[in-house]
Amino acid sequence: MPRNSEKNALVREARRKQILDAALTVYIRFGYHGTDMDTVAEQAQLAKGLLYYYYKTKKELFVELYTWMYEESYSFSAALLDNVERRNSIEQLMYYTYGMFGVNRSDLRFMQFSMRVPFDAYAIFGPEKWEEGAQKSDMHRKALTTIIEKGMEQGLIPKTNPGSAANSFWSVFVANVFEYSKLMTGNEVPHKSDIQTFKNVIQFCFQGLGVEYAIWNACLEKVVAENSKKEEAL
């Protein structure tokens, strides 16, 4: 019996995500220029002809891959920000980065993708849409800029250029998470054994902002305690 249009749509969406997931894995290993459609098809365990049915060119595939990753990242970032609105700026930064650390533990490709974006966005989007793509990839730094600026107004963070401070904070965080990712075990929320790893990741970020250890460490302990209670409640 032929599938109806609704079932066909579900099949197409599942196949699309299968291809994008495979493309992400290949991209992390080889970068944009080192990735070819044959390797993506092999990773997805699909015939090459079927891959080309969904995406006519590698560039078309990567535009959708980047768009998909931006949408996923934006949704997660927005959810984190919704949960920190009533906290002070140091707690907001801690909660935000703790959440990012957790999602990276569930899929190490998340931070690896973030590290590759600046090198490949122009080649993928071209001169016409490169700025739009770059702005979408900059969502985390923009979120951090808002939080840091508020912290400066509250006197919790020494005054400097908030955009530059956010850029430094995010760059150090991404680099440190990438370095420590081999120690992560793949759970969505860091367990007690991983708190020291997170502490190692985050300490230089807060030092760069001029925030004293006692202040950011107290916020870390608070965030860890809150997440432990959530885990126990599940």
Automatic annotation (TrEMBL):
DNA-binding region as annotated in the record: 36-55
Superkingdom as given in the UniProt entry: Bacteria
GO terms assigned for molecular function: DNA-binding transcription factor activity; transcription cis-regulatory region binding
A family per Pfam: TetR_N
PROSITE patterns according to UniProt: HTH_TETR_2 (PS50977)
SUPFAM superfamilies: Homeodomain-like (SSF46689), Tetracyclin repressor-like, C-terminal domain (SSF48498)
Domain HTH tetR-type: 13-73
Keywords, ordered alphabetically: DNA-binding, Transcription, Transcription regulation
Annotated coiled-coil segments of the chain: none
Name of the protein in question: TetR family transcriptional regulator
